[in-house]
Amino acid sequence: MTDSEHDVLVIGGGVAGLVLALEVADHRRVTLLRPTSDDQGASRWAQGGIAAVLSPQDDIEAHVADTLVAGDGLCDERAVRFTVEQGPAAIEWLLSLGVPFTPDASPDAGYPYHLTREGGHGARRIIHADDATGLAVVETLRQHVDAHPGITLRGDLTAIGLIGDVAGRCRGARCLDTHGRLHELTAEDTVLATGGASGLYRHTTSPQPASGEGMMMAAELGAELMNLEFQQFHPTCLYDPEGPAFLVSEAVRGEGGLLLNAAGERFMPAVDPRAELAPRDVVARAIDAEMQRTGTDHVFLDIRHLGEGAILRHFPTIHAHCASRGLDIVHRPIPVVPAAHYSCGGVSTDLEGATTVPGLHAIGEVACTGLHGANRMASNSLLECLVYARSCGQRLRTARGRADADLVPRHWGTRVVDPEAVATIREEMRQLMSARVAIVRTDRGLDEAARELGVLYQDLALRVREATPSVALSNLWHALRLARLTVASARARRESRGLHYNPDCPVHAEANPHPSRIRLEDLETR
């Protein structure tokens, strides 16, 4: 069925989608697709905070410089400067909405709220709400969204693809409701806020991570994707093979946490002069190497020396969660392992969130703005969500995407695909990506991944051609093709840079590197 024409359709209800809705809703009607699964997405689980220049001891140039260093030569400096310059105003906007950031009552505080420091930052510039910043921001934004008469919230629909027209414009989204019925929501403007692609991997820091569905929806309409090979692995996910994923914030190291190997020895000082405060790509590779050297499946993050008072004050959520799983972090170090965390690549956009497809915008982790380059610096992610959602929203207040070209139809089969077959292919894909396309890649491993993912693709393509639509099948179809594009991007980058480390080409290839750009048609012609 086709619903009536929508004005601005936003797909995804994390921080980026909620901010965009609030920015636009006083000027245009907004329909926000926010399935219940968004409550388990990356925004809610972002612990550390938001990076912004707030302290009198900090400045814009320092934040810009730190971000460029972390991005390992691949950042778009224009995007970096734009993001950093907009940061303080974005934080003030959140404060005006009532986000309960942690105050700093110390007599020498230069700013009313506590600022912490994380890896890659040369100053304390991370504003936070204890150690559950994402949750606090999402809940505050959600309260304002619920109360706004210009926003229609749809929790019963999940987007499985975008609608295009014969003129090459995005015209909305195809969705399934909770009963599996198809809905076509046409819209003047469509905004993707669907998250990243860490779900391509077996171990992640989010309980229900996105697998790049939004990226592939955009690619199906011809949008350009960029820097897919730069998948960030957070150095410290709680190691518990029997339990759900749980991120141990970078702020733990920012406040003095030490990484220890199985023998209780620090290893980071020998790797990098910044030790535990080195950028995430450096720390994750060092942990991976130490695990391989010692034959262990995790290392330890030790904060016992901080004392119980500081631990409870700074990390109440982490302390409570670990205690619920039988771990007393006041008296025992935390077992940790790197896990897929953040996609630095995604749908290529400009500073206002516009993609290469007219009528389609992308914000948040699904987008690639050029801010992160080859490696995202800690707590620049929520900053990016805020800045680009506000920028995109301000543009969409007045820019309208009216079009009258014929829509491109989509035909479906009638066969119901076995859910077990879908689950099996997904697990095989995730195992391949984790084994061959993770923290360290090799030419041989990438070749094997390309070949084996190709076999899975041929199997799934036959099923999709005859299948009736389902959310699980659609998500896997998007994920598997994005995995293949990711491998293609990694094979094409003949150097090691940032999050992409290949010992077969271990050094930077050129002084002025270029971002990798790829379209779906590039894969289909190989």
Automatic annotation (TrEMBL):
It holds the Pfam family Succ_DH_flav_C. Its EC number is 1.4.3.16. Pathway: Cofactor biosynthesis; NAD(+) biosynthesis; iminoaspartate from L-aspartate (oxidase route): step 1/1. It comes from the Bacteria. It catalyses: L-aspartate + O2 = iminosuccinate + H2O2. GO terms for biological process: 'de novo' NAD+ biosynthetic process from L-aspartate. Residues 7-382 form the FAD-dependent oxidoreductase 2 FAD-binding domain. GO terms for molecular function: L-aspartate oxidase activity. Residues 426-508 form the Fumarate reductase/succinate dehydrogenase flavoprotein-like C-terminal domain. GO terms for cellular component: cytoplasm. It is found in: Cytoplasm. Its main location: cytoplasm. It is an enzyme of class 1 (oxidoreductase). Its cofactor is FAD. The active site is at R280. Residues 498-526 are annotated as: Disordered. Keywords: FAD, Flavoprotein, Oxidoreductase, Pyridine nucleotide biosynthesis. Belongs to the FAD-dependent oxidoreductase 2 family. NadB subfamily. Catalyzes the oxidation of L-aspartate to iminoaspartate. This is L-aspartate oxidase.
